[in-house]
Design goal:
The protein has a single domain, classed as Ubiquitin Conjugating Enzyme, CATH 3.10.110. About 20% of the residues lie in helices and about 25% in strands. The chain is built from one helix and five strands. The longest helix has 23 residues. This is UBC core domain-containing protein.
Length: about 110
Amino acid sequence: MAQHGHHVASSQKALMLELKSLQDEPVEGFKITLVDESDLYNWEVAIFGPPNTHYEGGYFKARIKFPIDYPYSPPSFRFLTKMWHPNIYEVFAVNIFYWGSYFDLKFY
């Protein structure tokens, strides 16, 4: 049980730091909010289509769900908006072989 408590404290700290960083220095074309203010493990992402692309003016919603042992395990990403793109899937999971605890969301 102590190990579980350590993961929760560690992941909450990592998520709070990442959320603050993304709010203080937003990534252009993205807006991050919590689905529920009391739950750091579920984020909603608003993606705005970049200018001069086929997606210009588009608005896409997605959810990021973080595991209890984040950042040691990767988050999952799911589009809420239907996407018609050959390389984008409704549910996106980071391959564990390409994930490292030193990554953060800005890396991807």
